[in-house]
Backbone:
């Protein structure tokens, strides 16, 4: 095993967690340039199904069109710019109609109705489709990219595109979804997830299942970071009882039956793979000192449809762990906003946070 080292790095200065101007810089350089995880393909299973992804000033409609393709559009009318849709999720009949003057768009974004505009000689409907947004699906997840010419998803995700095949992630369904509002900067959530130095004090139960030093990393630099932790004794999964609560997923076998895997997928996804279920956190920025975390517990549909299916053991485990984590993230936010705070030294057990900070700073255009 390669020795873990934080290379003597220190935590980020306080302004990275509090400053409006750094937050805006993140918007320009990261959140409107990188591929963002926004939900599951199963959230839009039928034509017309949609959900909104709201991010600062932007609102994006993600929907399934009549050809069963997932598409994304800016939620902005091409007439006078009005927000078209305000319900967080739902189903369009066959079109999207603006509530102001009833311009109407097809599910593939074409303008198909514009009352009275035929009187305007120079007007051509074809010139006013909804502005589209690049979208990709990977392992059942939906990703979008607001850049004008985004890096192709397959390039951006090349290091991990085939990494998780044995879990058959694209087949999995959401058995439980929970949204948390956390009074902490988004990076504190990702940094907290990137180390288990805090596990003995904060998560005694988790630490019994996976002792904190019994871990390694197989992705140690760049936008994808993380690796396995070993399950102790007879423990089978991360649950309150330590027992599996569903059959083993896909082709998971061998050592993977005795490990759980944790990955940060920069900038807003956390992927936790267990032998019997998968947990996905989506971190949404709200303000420098606030974020929202959407947590999905994913199981195989055959397990879900079994009459004895009870994911409670896994849900309770991660509800407990999440709450313990969000609590210290909120305490961190309060502390790093103090005039007394100065960057502190990382332990070598926090080498993945140091790697995260380097990736973050280089994405911001600063030396990492
Ligand atoms: S602003 Fe949408 S139809 Fe006028
Ligand atoms: Fe934790």
Residues:
């Amino acid at each position: 095993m390669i020795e873990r080292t934080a290379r003597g790095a220190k935590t980020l200065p306080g302004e990275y967690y509090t400053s409006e101007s750094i937050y805006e810089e993140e918007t320009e350089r990261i959140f409107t340039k990188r591929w963002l995880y926004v939900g599951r393909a199963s959230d839009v299973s039928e034509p017309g199904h949609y959900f909104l992804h709201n991010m600062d000033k932007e609102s994006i409609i993600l929907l399934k069109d009549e050809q069963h393709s997932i598409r994304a559009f800016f939620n902005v009318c091409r007439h006078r710019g009005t927000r078209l849709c305000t319900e967080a999720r739902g189903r369009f009949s066959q079109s999207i109609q603006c509530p102001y003057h009833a311009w109407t768009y097809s599910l593939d974004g074409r303008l198909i109705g514009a009352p009275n505009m035929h009187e305007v000689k120079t007007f051509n409907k074809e010139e006013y489709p909804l502005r589209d947004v690049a979208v990709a699906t990977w392992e059942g997840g939906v990703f979008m990219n607001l850049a004008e010419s985004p890096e192709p998803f397959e390039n951006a995700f090349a290091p991990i595109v085939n990494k998780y095949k044995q879990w058959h992630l694209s087949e999995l369904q959401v058995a439980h979804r929970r949204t948390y509002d956390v009074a902490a900067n988004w990076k504190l959530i990702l940094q907290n997830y990137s180390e288990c130095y805090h596990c003995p004090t904060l998560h005694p139960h988790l630490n019994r299942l996976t002792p904190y030093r019994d871990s390694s990393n197989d992705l140690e630099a760049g936008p994808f970071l993380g690796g396995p932790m070993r399950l102790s004794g007879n423990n089978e999964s991360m649950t309150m009882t330590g027992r599996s609560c569903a059959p083993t997923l896909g082709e998971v076998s061998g050592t993977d039956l005795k490990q759980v895997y944790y990955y940060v997928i920069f900038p807003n996804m956390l992927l936790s793979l267990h032998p019997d279920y998968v947990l996905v956190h989506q971190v949404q920025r709200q303000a420098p000192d606030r974020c929202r975390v959407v947590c999905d517990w994913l199981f195989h549909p055959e397990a879900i449809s079994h009459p004895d299916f009870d994911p409670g053991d896994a849900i309770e485990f991660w509800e407990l762990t999440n709450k313990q984590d969000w609590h210290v993230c909120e305490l961190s936010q309060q502390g790093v906003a103090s005039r007394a705070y100065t960057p502190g030294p990382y332990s070598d057990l926090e080498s993945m946070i140091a790697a995260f900070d380097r990736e973050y700073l280089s994405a911001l255009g600063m030396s990492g």
The chain has a mean pLDDT of 97. The domain at 36-156 is CATH 2.102.10.10 (Rieske Iron-sulfur Protein). The CA atoms of residues 168 and 250 lie 5 Å apart. The longest helix spans residues 312-336.
